[in-house]
Specification:
Layout lengths: L1 H10 L2 E3 L5 E3 H91 L18 H15 L6 H8 L1 H16 L3 H16 L1 H10 L17 E4 L6 E3 L4 H4 L3 E3 L8 E8 L2 E9 L2 H5 L2 H9 L4 E5 L2 E7 L5 E7 L2 E7 L5 H9 L1 E3 L1
Antiparallel strand pairs: 1-2, 3-5, 4-12, 5-6, 6-7, 7-11, 8-9, 9-10, 10-11
Length: 356
């Protein structure tokens, strides 16, 4: 029995552990298994910690990226605002420069207008002759000997008289509408109109500086002389930077007896002579704005130029003067320029007209 136990003991395999302790193989296997389990548990804990650390790092990185994006967005907004401020500044500087240039141009124009002297003209402009009727042309030929005697007279009288040569044809037609009650009155009005249109330069100077009677001129009337250097009986439009009486030779009353009062003066735009004639706006023009357009069309002034709230109708005959027809501040205005002007010239001059 003991021998069997010894033999059994002798068959047990012993294993020495790393710490020097002897244990059976079975115990060693159990210890190894336990050690593996502990290692696995520790490994899982390390993995959890590593994952947690990575998550924290990722969160921090995302926060930093978000902060950078926000800072970048704010920088872009600031840059955009700054760029807009720079654009506004440049636009403001551009407007100031344009304003200064406009002031300089206006100043130079004013100086040129003061320096320019009006040229003398005899009789009716050639460009105006195509507007006259055969009867008017015939009377014009009769008046030429008297017109030729007017050469060499004073500048102011010439300015006051010659402005009606082209302008009064337009106002005369308006006046004729009010007095055409009979054929006889129409003929008388036409004769009167001819005197003002054709003989405005020659007759006025001829009558004031010679001893020849008005009766020496066929069709003339003592009652229908054009009055120069008169004071209008109503407020008129004039350039804001000029006095008509001092700078432009004064007003001339160009309307015939019995017709609505009309006054005219002579001015210049870029050394080009213009005649400005005006009268109070008729009631039918106030009630029906289309009357102005119809009137303009009758003088071939069909080009529309809008200046603020003012409609200006421009027209030009071939090799002839340019005409502007418009209503401003309850005044009906006709302007005739000896030569064609550009739109900028018209805008500047008409805008500068004020009622005094």
């Amino acid at each position: 029995m003991r021998e069997d136990e010894r033999e059994s003991v002798n068959n047990i395999r012993l294993v020495r552990l790393p710490n020097g302790k002897l244990v059976t193989q079975e115990q060693a296997d159990k210890l190894l298994e336990s050690t593996k389990q502990n290692n696995n548990s520790n490994s899982d804990q390390v993995k959890v910690k590593t994952t947690s650390t990575k998550t924290k790092l990722r969160t921090r990185r995302e926060r930093k990226e978000a902060a950078k994006q926000q800072e970048k967005s704010q920088s872009e907004d600031i840059l955009e605002v700054w760029n807009k401020q720079q654009e506004i500044k440049k636009e403001s500087e551009k407007l100031e420069l344009e304003y200064e240039l406009a002031k300089k141009m206006a100043k130079e124009l004013k100086m040129k207008l003061k320096e320019q002297q009006a040229s003398d003209q005899d009789g009716v402009d050639e460009s105006f002759e195509d507007l006259l009727s055969p009867r008017t042309k015939s009377l014009s030929k009769k008046l030429k000997p008297y017109v030729s005697k007017t050469k060499g007279n004073t500048k102011n009288i010439l300015h006051s008289a010659k402005l009606t040569a082209k302008r009064y044809l337009k106002l005369g037609r308006l006046a004729l509408k009010d007095i055409r009650s009979s054929r006889r009155k129409s003929v008388v009005a036409m004769v009167t109109l001819v005197i003002f249109m054709v003989g405005s330069v020659g007759i006025i100077k001829f009558l004031t500086q010679t001893k020849v009677s008005v009766k020496d001129v066929q069709g003339a009337s003592d009652k229908n002389q054009i009055q120069t250097k008169v004071k209008p009986d109503f407020a008129t439009l004039r350039p804001a930077n000029k006095d008509v009486n001092i700078d432009l030779g004064g007003y001339a009353k160009v309307s015939p007896t019995g017709a609505a009062s009309a006054y005219a003066y002579v001015d210049e735009i870029r050394s080009i002579e213009i005649k400005v004639t005006q009268q109070q706006l008729p009631d039918n023009f106030k009630k029906n704005p289309g009357e102005l357009e119809n009137l303009a069309k009758s003088y071939n002034a069909t080009k529309l130029l809008q200046i603020d709230e003012t409609n200006v109708y421009l027209g030009k005959k071939e090799k002839g003067p340019q005409t502007a027809v418009f209503a401003k501040d309850d005044m009906l205005v006709f302007i005739v320029a000896d030569q064609e002007l550009n739109d900028v010239d018209w805008v500047q001059y008409i805008t500068n007209l004020i009622k005094i």
